[in-house]
Every structure is written in C-alpha cells, then in structure tokens.
Amino acid sequence: MRKILIILGILSLTSCVITFPGTRYKHLTEDQKKRVVVCNAPIDSLTNDGKVYLVTIEQMQKFLNSKNRVLIYEYASYCQSEYCMNPAVIENECTKAGVQFCIVSVSYEDVFNISVQNTPILAIEPTILGKKIGKDCSKVFFDKLTGTTWKTRGYGRYYSYIKGKFKGCYDDYSDALTGY
Length: 180
Prior knowledge:
Largest sheet: 7 strands, mixed
Number of strands: 7
Structural class: alpha/beta
Distance between the termini: 41 Å
Strand content: 15-25%
Number of helices: 7
Radius of gyration: 15 Å
Order of helices and strands: HHEEHEHEEHHEEH
C-alpha cells in the first residue's frame, strides 16, 4: 500500500503518467485513483477487472516474448483521427485474427470507460524512466520497447509484434493486422 501511495505521489508531481502533462490523473475520483495500481504479476495473467495497471518496459517485453502475435494500441480518448478506434472493435478483430490485443492508455481521461471484454488496461509505470519526462513519457517507452525512434517507426498508434520482435507501427489497425 505504501508503495502505491509513493507512486501516486510521484505521478502527481511529474505529470508523466503516460504521455502528456495533462494526463488528467488529478481529475480522477478517489475511488478511481485507488484502481490505478502497479502491476505485480505477469501481464498475461491480468484481466479486465476495472483497474489500470502500471507496467514497465521489462514486463511488456516479457509479455511480448511469450506471445506469437501482439497488437498494442496506444489509446488516447481525445484522439480525433479517423484511425483512433473504439478498443472493443479492435479487440474483436484481433480475436478473429488470432492476435493478442493490448491497450496502453496515454491519458486517464475516460480510461475507466474503455469497453473491452478481456483486455486489461495498461499504463506506463513512470518511475522506470528515471527522470521527469512529461509529454515524452510514451515516446521514450515505445522507443525502448520497439528498439527504434518515433522518427524511424512513424507516428502510428498501433504497434505490431511477432514473437517479441517489433514488426512495425501503423496508423490503421487493419494494416497492422495484415501480414501476420
């Protein structure tokens, strides 16, 4: 419990929960703040239980290495792009294609309203990055996770992996699902 309180304190000081300084953490209710927890179990053992799990790069890589095919959706509730989709639609399409679906939310805004059946909601554990990164938190996380930089991989929200190896970053989830 003390560890969670320390992390929540750090979150409020750094504004680097996921990606942008305006992650909206301070707008969560006290009950919602209690449901933002450090992930202390393998990611593939998590369920969609109403919590947001803070994960490390190492935990994500271990998860990716244990699966044949994974699609990570860098979810932002405020995204207005035609490519930002309802996670339930993507979860369904991934299930049909035999691809493991994973959500990493970039904001707490509406994070507890994400409607998926089986996919746990993940967020980047901010203390792993070692410094106050602000809006670059997600960029640094995915740079390390993919072994690329955002300039070389592109700006897409969908990250495709095969047996733990980064395949590509896509604007459209359907493009990411082709070629598996």
